[in-house]
Amino acid sequence: MEKYMERDKRMSASEAVERFLKDGDSLVYANCLASMPLALVHEVIRAGKKNLMLFQQGGIEEVDLMLEAGVIDKLVVAYNFRLGGKRIMPPLDRAMKEGRVQVEEMTNFTLLSMMKAGAMGYNFIPVLSGLRVTDVVKRNGFLKDQRFGEVIDPFSGEKTLVVKGYNPDCALMHVQRADKAGNGQLWGAMINSKWAALAAKKIILSTEKIVDSDVIKSSPHLTIAPAHKVCAVVECPWGAHPSELAGGYDYDLIFRALYFASIGSPDSIKGWMDEWIYNLSDREEYINHYIEKFGEERLAVLKAKPFLSEPADYGFPFTHEWNDEGYAEKMGMNMSEFVAMLDEKGVLLEG
Prior knowledge:
Blueprint: H1 2-5, H2 13-20, E1 26-29, H3 38-47, E2 52-59, H4 62-68, E3 72-80, H5 91-97, E4 102-105, H6 108-120, E5 124-126, H7 135-138, E6 148-152, E7 159-164, E8 170-178, E9 184-185, H8 193-199, E10 203-210, H9 213-218, E11 223-225, E12 230-235, H10 253-260, H11 266-278, H12 283-294, H13 296-302, E13 327-328, E14 333-334, H14 335-345
Parallel strand pairs: 1-2, 1-8, 2-3, 3-4, 8-10, 10-12
Antiparallel strand pairs: 5-7, 6-7, 8-9, 9-11, 13-14
Helix pairs in contact: 2-3, 6-8, 12-13
């Protein structure tokens, strides 16, 4: 396990997407509204992935971009940002009208519960019984009966509404820092990050910077993505732009306004995607193009001002139970005596 935790999983976004995301996979964003893994989203689009099934609690631009690119054909969603009223038909509306996507509508709570159950290894988990009277339960989408069910509460004998647990094939996630093995640390607004990351079978992780493992160990409570779940680590400054990242940068209102001004027709959003996704090879080119178009001053305005937390002391004696000679002072025996004692009690496992 220790050797696995030291594995170097650093690679480019294009390599990560090519190796670990397959056509037809189920996908979840392990970020919601803030800290969005938009550099990875752009890479999935450039790679031309197809027939993905996406879980997303709250979308702003990432769902619409994938729909417009033809990447996803199934969507489980609680909320997707819509701008412009009846005058504008955004990509999700167009895709639904044209039959290019099947949609399953959940609430934020029930979609998060799907991920929580999956992360904890449960087939299902109880949710609020009042949901029974809502269309969320009454109207089936493409998941049909693989959403809600009922079980008998063993304590009260009453019927309890439950939601099915899911384990998406892959999660896309962006964090402030990670080590080369993939231990990713995120702080600020997390919303679904913990449960979505732990529910997924594997995580493609982008990070603002890669740090030494000792930095990760110094603040263990910030580790949201554990190395054993992460298959790729992509160092990617500004990887969440135009969404915000605590300690990094604010959301880019002007850039987003220009994006939303382009989504009203297939031609205009195609032009936006050509400029900001297809005609650029990676995030570095994206930021360079941003600077060329808007100037370094505009980018600098977005950068966060420092607001440091108070250090926490995680100190322990850090002594080992066994000394270099293989003797445990607290137990008063050496390793061979300890093994013999376990064998005598019949608690040793074969092999």
